[in-house]
């Protein structure tokens, strides 16, 4: 077994810290005022960073809103001019198809007013609303097309969504309901109502 022994240190030993500690303590004395300023500066820097971050976020939101508004206005211009490729590009970018300007005009209104039937059809096919959507004067796309004398656009607006297949299908469903066994109870209800109600002659 190995024996461990203790060797006393010499005055200038590599492991001696006594003299160095004394000199470090003398040079590292900081006044309370310096400490206070240090922490105030630290807090001030933190607040400044938060303020800058908030301003940057607010600025980004403003920039984003402005970009959306500009794209919306471009959509209205393309609709007014009948620029189908421009409309398709903006729609593919996700521009709000129901964007309204300061007069509450939409792309469908612009296209209707200027007689752009193809633009009206394209906008309607992509979900643009026009029923119940009015400008500051209370006029909708139908009113604007009528005022401008664009009967073809008016017909497009009124006929959009009506397809012969839908009408035939709903007609078939109506016939199916009438031709089932439920017709007898329906006829009995109708007959009983007629006999109980006296119509003055």
UniProtKB/TrEMBL annotation:
SUPFAM superfamilies: Ankyrin repeat (SSF48403). It holds the Pfam family Ank_2. This is G-patch domain and ankyrin repeats 1. It comes from the Eukaryota. It comes from Xiphophorus maculatus (Southern platyfish).
């Amino acid at each position: 077994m190995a024996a461990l022994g203790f060797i006393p240190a010499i005055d200038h030993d590599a492991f001696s810290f006594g003299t160095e500690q004394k000199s470090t303590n003398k040079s590292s004395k900081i006044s309370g005022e310096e400490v206070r300023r240090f922490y105030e500066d630290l807090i001030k820097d933190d607040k400044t960073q938060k303020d800058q971050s908030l301003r940057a976020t607010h600025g980004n939101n403003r920039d984003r809103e402005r970009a959306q508004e500009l794209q919306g206005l471009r959509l209205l211009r393309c609709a007014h001019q009948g620029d189908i490729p421009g409309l398709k590009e903006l729609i593919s970018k996700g521009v709000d198809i129901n964007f309204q300007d300061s007069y509450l005009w939409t792309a469908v209104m612009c296209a209707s007013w200027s007689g752009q039937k193809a633009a009206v059809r394209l906008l309607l096919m992509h979900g643009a609303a026009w029923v119940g959507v009015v400008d500051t004067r209370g006029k909708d796309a139908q009113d604007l097309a009528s005022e401008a004398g664009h009967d073809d656009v008016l017909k497009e607006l009124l006929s959009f969504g009506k397809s012969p297949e839908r009408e035939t299908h709903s007609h078939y469903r109506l016939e199916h309901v009438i031709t089932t066994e439920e017709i007898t109870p329906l006829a009995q209800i109708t007959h009983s109502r007629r006999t109980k109600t006296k119509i003055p002659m």
